[in-house]
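Cross-check.
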Amino acid sequence: MKLERYKLIFLIAGLIGVLIIASPALTGFIHFPSGERLSELYLLGSGNMMANYPFNIAVGQNNSVNVGVTNQLGSSAYYVLYVELKNQTDPFPNATTESPSSLPPLYEYRFFASNDQTWESKLNFTVSAATFSESQSIIKVLTINNFAFNANKPAEWDATDKTFTYKVLFELWTYNTKTSSVTYNNRYVNLQLNLTQSS
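Predicted model, tokenized:
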């Protein structure tokens, strides 16, 4: 009786050992639940760091950031990344309703990324023309990666922070095979800027 009990214990322990050793091979046949499938969107400042972002920018001054997307959707994806210019009163995208902002895109990136692949690109931008008054600034022309865009975006003087505040907004969209169109991915990042008259 005791010998049969030990045999059963050895058999169970042996089966557990075989499953542990074979588990890497089983992952090719059995799909275990994984984490959330998403796309990561990020901005990096100078030196490819999450710091040293441009903030005080003057007319004619060259500025740059690196923007990147990591695909963790579980399959290849086609992306569109819209670049927009926002002032204090323009709306952000709505995370609750998963709605994009109502701003018109000035510039866009289009690219494919396979699963677990990271795409990254430098965005160079310059306020090429602007006007100032005591209470308002207007970015007339914003140049992005050597393409000039008529922005005509006003910003009111913020007496508390002593800034003319703008944001460069990046919205991520993906191609939806069901609708055969790009749809908002509910991911955005922004770069806050203070427009100054001189550097």
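Confidence is low (pLDDT under 50) at residues 22-33. Helices lie at 2-26. Passed to J.P. for a second look.
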